[in-house]
Specification:
Blueprint: H1 6-9, E1 40-44, H2 72-80, H3 84-95, H4 105-138, E2 141-147, E3 150-155, E4 164-168, E5 176-182, E6 188-192, H5 194-197, E7 203-206, E8 225-229, E9 241-245, E10 248-252, E11 257-258, E12 263-265, E13 269-276, H6 282-285, H7 296-329, H8 351-365, H9 372-390, E14 405-406, E15 418-423, E16 430-441, E17 444-446, H10 452-467, H11 474-499, H12 524-536, E18 541-544, E19 551-554, H13 558-570, E20 572-577, E21 581-586, E22 595-605, E23 613-619, E24 625-631, H14 633-638, H15 648-660, E25 664-673, H16 675-689, H17 696-707, E26 712-723, H18 727-736, E27 740-744, H19 749-758, E28 767-771, H20 779-799, E29 807-812, H21 813-819, H22 825-833, E30 837-841, H23 845-859, E31 862-867, H24 873-878, E32 881-885, H25 892-896, E33 899-901
Parallel strand pairs: 15-27, 15-31, 27-30, 28-29, 29-30, 31-32, 32-33
Antiparallel strand pairs: 1-8, 2-3, 2-4, 4-13, 5-11, 5-13, 6-7, 6-12, 8-9, 9-10, 14-33, 16-17, 16-26, 18-19, 20-21, 21-22, 22-23, 23-24, 24-25, 25-26
Helix pairs in contact: 2-4, 3-4, 4-9, 7-8, 10-11, 12-13, 16-17, 20-22
Amino acid sequence: MPRGRIRARLRRSHLYTFSCIRPRSTEEGPHSIEGPGYSRIVHCNQPLMHKRKPLKYRSNYISTTKYNFVTFLPKALYEQFHRVANLYFLGAAIVSVTPLSPFSAVSMIAPLAFVVGLSMAKEALEDWRRFMQDMEVNNRRVKVHKGEGDFGDKSWRQVQVGDVVKVEKDQFFPADLLLLSSSYEDGICYVETMNLDGETNLKVKRALEVTLPLDEDEAFKNFRGMIKCEDPNPSLYTFIGNFEYDSQVYALDPSQILLRDSKLRNTAFVYGIAIFTGHDSKVMQNATKSPSKRSRIERKMDYIIYVLFSLLLAISLISSVGFAVRTKFYMPDWWYLKPQETDDYYNPRKPVLSGVTHLVTALMLYGYLIPISLYVSIEVVKVLQASFINQDIQMYDEETGNPAQARTSNLNEELGQVDTILSDKTGTLTCNQMDFLKCSIAGTAYGVRSSEVELAAAAQMAIDLEDHDSERSSVSRRKGKQQEIELETVVTSKDEKDNKSPIKGFSFEDNRIMNGNWLKEPNADVIRLFSRILAICHTAIPELNEETGGYTYEAESPDEGAFLVAAREFGFEFFKRTQASVFVRERYSSSGQPIEREFKILNMLEFTSKRKRMTVIVRDEDGQILLLCKGADSIIFDRLSKNGRLYEEETTRHLNEYGEAGLRTLALAYRKLEESEYSAWNNEFQKAKTSIGADRETMLENVADMMERDLILVGATAVEDKLQKGVPQCIDKLAQAGLKIWVLTGDKMETAINIGYACSMLRQGMKQICITAISSDAKEVVKENILMQITNASQMIKLEQDPHAAFALIIDGKTLAYALEDNMKQQFLGLAVDCASVICCRVSPKQKALVTRLVKEGTGKTTLAIGDGANDVGMIQEADIGVGISGVEGMQVGNISNSLFLQLQYIH
């Protein structure tokens, strides 16, 4: 992207007031880094120094295969002779070369070699496919500094610790990098971490101010520096280190670290230093080694072989005892056998020895009780089953043109024995596509189109009607008829809408406010204000599409993008952002001509999971200062003034309806500010912003909280996170089959609960049990409180009188860390097993794997894990069966899964 463009010159620090700026005057003091766990030293732009001891860091080559060229033979042989029958025939083959064998050696060795060789060949083929997929990742290209300010393409596998790497827009980061600079002057860049934590919203990363001049290739000609930091570890959200540059030491924190497998978005390019490469990177530290999984039928076959072998041993013992007796007492009379000239195998003087040798011979002679061909038959059947899966036309994805893939045939039959399914959310249950569907403005609900949840409920209602007794009363029949007509109307409306040209991010339908008709509404002024809030209160950047003449929006989250599209369709098009202003083109006005309005941005208070709201303070063309705010309804309603609650009752009712429909909701509010009031507050805000110390963030939040008061409610929005096709029906069928379903997601709790409703995991009337950790520095106090919550919840379920009552357990990652400790995990598992649905929010990839292990080992039943991103790798490897969904979060999950499907609906 040319640096002359306005978009590239924006100084993002004017927008991000909390975590994304530092005081200009000085940098924070360096961390005290010493002792175990903090021994890593990185020489910037000097990668060759890391090839020598004591550094000698790992390369950037990664492997998810079970074997390599050296270990294949011993590991594969070990796998094969784990099977009891193969072990038996190996012993028989060894004995066959001795005189004890009743058969020729070839007749024993050839079948064994064929069976073992065929199985090993299948293992080699499946692992070769994993190897080729690894090579696709290792051979991705990225620009690396070669010296003298020149950058050239290298494969990912060639990237070394200390390399200066240039990553361009929409590329993945090849290693864990320290951000040095970006195409923005302030060193800000947008990062999509969906591949790591499943979150769809973009994260803002920022470079140290001292490295901002390093923003072009030539600047790295003589660049040198040193990084001292923590050793490789699996924590995705922490980083401690110091950066020594120009004889100064600067503290590093997670906001400067770009993690491998996350993607650069909305930024032309960034420069970074490789800190952790290959299996030292945080995402690979979260992965576990590819385990060797054996199906239950194989273990059952081993048990059957033990029984057959015991029978074989008993028959052989009886035979050998009889042989020893007859050899001792009868053989001396059999002159034709020349008893005086026999060897030890038939010696009447040594009957015990003769009996023992005959036992070995009998074991081989009766060995056909052990079915060596059974393993071959099962292997052939499994390979054919895998082939059928790969060629199944009903699991073919027309959009991508890819079929399902059974990446290993060892576990096919396990799919029919699954007891618990553990699933990721983002990209697995949902499509990561937000659509603006409904809104409430001035207490009036707008939007007549139904959500997927409402359509699914209507369809279920129709099914229930059909199942009713045919002898219902005529009134009931008429009522059912009416309900069926309503369902037909809803579906028809949906179909008619689908026939129109779809607008990405916008599924809203209501003629009352479309095409300028809102001007005729009684609350036209409030609708205008509502649309302006959508068009102004955001951090997005517009980009002109030269082909269509329209604008697309690079937004931090898909919700923001949907709001901007909705504002545009309502007639308020955000089309330009400068250093200090936002420009909106209002298509409908009293004059009948489009008007371009400028709103000067005075302050922007960003949305965080803690604040749960975003605020922008602007000055309009009339000089009026406005505070525009959007956020969670519980937060906004608590901040309304007495005069600002005019629409609260109606809006609350609409929000409840939207929540029941599985929609994500936000409330919108505003406030007019006097010049003197704003000036006094801004002085306090600037003091907090330029302060130095650990309490700076707290001071900023307190000052912001002072202004975000006495708001006036305008309305609420409802957007739909599109489910993957067929997900509610799939989950409903799985639940009817008695399978327990867990969702393990990195998303926040509100989002996960909404999706739980949308995909039928949570239902109206289901009792929710939320386990959360209290705020306390004393870990023992926190643990005792969590244990008490688990105990009380378990007791409540036991005392429940209604036999049809259903419970849902919801727990976050911080609480889960305590619940998974040895002295609490069994109680947690007991509670979870008693619940119909379990949702774990804000969980790390490591926690996903630990939960999967707990369920697998604690219940002793077959578990199936489903995911689509690198953050799901550990979970998939830990489960009895791992299924990868080919989504937008990359393909690393496909490399380690047992099966790769294109959509979740193919599971059932």
